[in-house]
Amino acid sequence: MSRASTPVIDPVELTRDLIRIPSVTPADEGAMGVLERHLTALGFHCRRLAFEGPGGEGVHARIENLYARRGTASPNLCFAGHTDVVPTGPSEQWSSQPFTAEVKDGVLYGRGAVDMKGGIAAWVAAVSQVIAEGEPEGSLSFLITGDEEGPALHGTKRVVETLAAEGEVIDACVVGEPSSSQHLGDMIKVGRRGSLNTWITVTGKQGHVAYPERAANPAPVIARLMSRLNDHVLDDGYEGFPPSNLEITTIDIGNPATNIIPAEAKARLNIRFNPSHTGDGLIDWLNREAGAIQGETGLQITLDHLCSGEAFLTEPGVFVAAVQDAVEAVAGRRPEASTTGGTSDARFIRALCPVLELGLVGQTMHQIDERVPTAELETLTAVYRRVIETVFERL
Question: Ranges for the Peptidase M20 dimerisation domain (predicted)?
Fold first, then answer.
């Protein structure tokens, strides 16, 4: 493709085009098609990777994903993101309708403006500028999913598994999550804690409260187990991470009667853990603790676990420094390398390559009137362009 024929993308207009598509997870509604058309015009080879299976609450879902690559040379610098968005909430509470992408006083309003259609559009625009100047010294790729805001079962996780099985090499990846805290470029995310959910059921025997010898009360058993788990200190922290924490999110018995010993008691907990632990290690510990209480009380205790992501850390090095230097050169501030916040799809990409998150200010993500100044989209495009150039110089 000649430089003269390379289209230069306007990040604001592409963001607006994407916002106008109501791609509330897991629906695509054509969002991948918009990106595919732009990337094809930029010389990318695009592959749709659609996966089907049970989604949230057992509902069957078909997830659209896209992997696009331009070039065959090394290094392969990847940008990862998601086109799905969270529900809008009451649309009448928005200053303008959430999918009209209205610009008012230099600010673009709409669901996905920050999280993260704006980040995707800025990287596409940056790529178009880089290509217009000449051929990059390496390959550029995109890994875009429609399943980040949902259960994340058929999105990036399965794309990464597919690419790894095919031997696809990605040397470094920038995820466009809104990592900035107060000002654009003040923070990048170089790691995340892992997340483990556990559902606990204690099975007893129903009976009359006046005749406890004829029943087996699961309530004190689950209270005993939850207290034991809650009092356990998981660790004292890990370099760059706070201590891991276990939080009891619910204890349910659902007994409306005052004179019945219940037959069953349930609870749920979440552990956010640093690299001191693995999901499997924590699961083994929880099972041992429950087994000990079961042995002491004689009541059956069952546990179901879901580890949605392992803890990871991209260590300081050439890649992290290149991104920090690029941000500082454009935005005038050196980003803090942070591990705060919840999970992101970076937890899956870590299996392929070093990964970090760099994007817009996240103050309004998931809120009514999600919005971004159009000037910030332009600045992020300039930051991303410098990131691409700097990473190719150093990797």
Answer: 190-292
